[in-house]
């Protein structure tokens, strides 16, 4: 059993970014993914082209587009909104384009290019990735998650 600062369950875009950001901030991170690779759904988004984000950079306008006003999103989008997403991918050398409706795609029109960058991001920051690893449950003490219980009965401790 290892001891990580952070365990992230799920290797989709949100899980990858959460794991990468935690590692970038100096945490020892374990990313658990039940599939044989991270980001599988990325490869099918936008008909295989991967719609990266929405090119609405005025956050007030962006949150108003969500049902109910989306005000709950304002804080998160302020910290990592569409411009941050574009900046992140461009910093890794991905050329992007904006199409009708404000949809942002890689110039290559190939979702694999987006996935390669996310994989590199994890490697660059030392995130440990366990593939084909299913989470069975969580061990909770005093209202806090103390361990992640895996389907093979192993457990992993983490502070977060």
SSE arrangement:
Layout (H helix, E strand, L loop, with lengths): L2 E2 L1 E4 L3 H12 L4 E4 L20 E2 L4 H6 L9 H6 L2 H10 L4 E4 L3 E4 L4 H14 L3 E3 L4 E7 L2 E7 L4 E4 L2
Parallel strand pairs: 1-10, 2-3, 3-7
Antiparallel strand pairs: 4-6, 5-6, 8-9, 9-10
Give an overview in words:
Helices cover 30% and strands 26% of the residues. It has 5 helices and 10 strands; from the N terminus they run E-E-H-E-E-H-H-H-E-E-H-E-E-E-E. The chain has helices spanning 13-24, 59-64, 74-79, 82-91, 111-124, and strands at residues 3-4, 6-9, 29-32, 53-54, 96-99, 103-106, 128-130, 135-141, 144-150, 155-158. The strands form 3 sheets. A 4-stranded mixed β-sheet has the order 1-10-9-8, with no helix packed on it. It has a 3-stranded parallel β-sheet with strand order 2-3-7, with helices on one face. Strands 4-6-5 form a 3-stranded antiparallel β-sheet. Helix 1 packs parallel to helix 5. The two termini are 16 Å apart. The model has no long low-confidence stretch (mean pLDDT 91).
Summarize the structure.
The chain has 160 residues and is α/β, with parallel strands linked by helices. Helix content is 30%, strand content 26%. It has helices at residues 13-24, 59-64, 74-79, 82-91, 111-124, and strands at 3-4, 6-9, 29-32, 53-54, 96-99, 103-106, 128-130, 135-141, 144-150, 155-158.
């Amino acid at each position: 059993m290892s001891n990580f600062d952070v365990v992230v369950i799920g290797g989709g875009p949100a899980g990858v970014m959460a794991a990468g950001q935690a590692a970038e901030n100096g945490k020892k991170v374990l990313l658990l993914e039940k599939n044989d690779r991270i980001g599988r759904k990325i490869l099918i988004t936008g008909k295989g082209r991967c719609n990266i984000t929405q090119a609405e950079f005025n956050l007030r306008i962006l949150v108003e587009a969500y049902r109910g006003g989306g005000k709950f999103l304002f804080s998160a989008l302020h910290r990592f909104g569409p411009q941050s997403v574009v900046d992140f991918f461009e910093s890794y050398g991905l050329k992007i384009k904006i199409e009708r409706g404000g949809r942002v795609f890689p110039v290559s029109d190939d979702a694999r290019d987006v996935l390669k960058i996310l994989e590199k991001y994890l490697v660059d920051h030392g995130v440990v990735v366990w593939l084909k690893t299913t989470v069975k449950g969580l061990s909770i003490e005093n209202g806090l998650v103390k361990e992640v219980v895996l389907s093979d009965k192993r457990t992993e401790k983490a502070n977060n």
